[in-house]
Amino acid sequence: xxxxxxxxxxxxxxxxxxxxxxxxxxxxxxxxxxxxxxxxxxxxxxxxxxxxxxxxxxxxxxxxxxxxxxxxxxxxxxxxxxxxxxxxxxxxxxxxxxxxxxxxxxxxxxxxxxxxxxxxxxxxxxxxxxxxxxxxxxxxxxxxxxxxxxxxxxxxxxxxxxxxxxxxxxxxxxxxxxxxxxxxxxxxxxxxxxxxxxxxxxxxxxxxxxxxxxxxxxxxxxxxxxxxxxxxxxxxxxxxxxxxxxxxxxxxxxxxxxxxxxxxx
Length: 265
Hints:
The protein is of the alpha+beta class. The chain is built from 6 helices and 18 strands. The strands form 5 sheets. The chain has a 7-stranded antiparallel β-sheet with strand order 1-12-2-13-16-17-18. Strands 9-8-7-3-11 form a 5-stranded antiparallel β-sheet. A two-stranded antiparallel ribbon has the order 4-10. A hairpin with a 2-residue loop joins strand 14 and strand 15. The chain starts with a strand and ends with a strand. The relative contact order is 0.20.
């Protein structure tokens, strides 16, 4: 769920969920971005883009898995995003390159790959002052470079990323907090579906959570990539690809712990 105005977010939550649950749900809001193609004089945000070559420091090895090079999907310029994110971005990692195992190989070879292995994705940081364009080695796929504008929004979690301890609910009327959110705010669920987003909360529109939890709370959402005909990528049956990272790993700047998950209809 996304909003452009914090006041309207709080008002909608309390009107629909009541004062207590509404305040609790509103407190889960995170700042994020919709990644959109610049139109009408809108400028690209820093060096943020989808596809294209990677932006890596000289000497960095191209990431691979099972002997296959990963494909570069996006680059986020966190220096350009940091002013809006504030404390949600405890480190300034510079450029973040997002890679995923998506080789251009025959299907018989592709279907033998273990797509449940965490090594199928990689998030690689690079110093903007030293980063250079690096072309993907074969058989990694190369996608057209599309500069994007990061439109600032405020996001609430999809109902399936809300757990029972997050929000008070009537246990006689609802089987869980997710049920409450789905019933009272279901028309707002999925308003980032089919879009590319960074940070904030992921949109799922499916009956499973994307943001895993540990002792530090829900994982931080880094990037959401929907199927995109112009770029030429897709993730299963109307699927979406999500990159997340544990809270502590982000605070430590350890992007090796980032994971990717595809959710399909």
